[in-house]
Amino acid sequence: MLDWDDLRFFLTLARHGSLSAAARVLHVSQSTVGRRLNTLEATLSVRLLNRTPEGYVLTLAGEEVREKAERLEAEALALERDVTGRDTRLRGLVRVTCAETMAAHLLAPSFAALHARHPDIMVELIPNPRELSLAMREADISVRMRRPEQHDLVVRRIGGIAFGLYATKAYIEERGEPDFENGCPDHHLITQMEDNLEMTQSAWLTEMASRSRVVLQTSSHEAAVLASANNGGLACVARFRGDGEPRLIRLEVPTEPPSADILLLVHKDNRDTPRIRTVLTHVTESIQALARVLQPPIANEVDVQAVGV
User: For labeling, which of 71, 73, 171, 239 is most exposed (least CB within 10 Å)?
Assistant: First the structure.
């Protein structure tokens, strides 16, 4: 008889393509994932996944099994959401996923206050640049900066993040002030890779500094901040990080970089579960309390407020 857990391990490996990635999602060792796959293949007497230099790839039999397993998974998750939605207790696990910098600097510091008010709610904070599936219960709540591709989600804008262009004083002394009219020749750029949520800001940067050379691409916002802070080049990063990094100075630019929305996502079947609703409210209030840090006024706005206009 098939073991549902074996199918669950197979689906995770098929989706993520490597033993290490699947092990992280499942919170087990790589050897456990491999053993579960071997058990399932032995039970079915067929190979489901082929290992290639690019990762695990489904065989034709694997494609057929995955299609059927996903239907079973969807039914099981729908049942779980239905039962969970009737849970009126403020206790249990709530998984929250977001980008690395947001997890470390915005959400993690706020959760001590949540625990003080609701000691029976445990938060699992999952920093991940990839959009985890709320429908498949990889997470219960997601905090992101772009609209999701997933269906059946409730999406709410809870704030915004301003960006700026930064470098170190030593870097500017060595390379000179950026000449934006001429595309900033002789400068180095630190940009975001395709899967990161700062791609709009990176596009702005490469357009403003079209004659500069990209010396580092990264999917980590925090890596971009630290690379620039160590004299690596010009980086367009969130104001709350750039302004808070003592080694960085914010540069004047002809046009401000585009800002980003902060979006709160939850599956429609889970939004009224009390413990999830409680964490949703907490995250919303925490982000909104940081509004002036996340979107500080630009210089001319400060001057207007100072004279009481």
Answer: 71
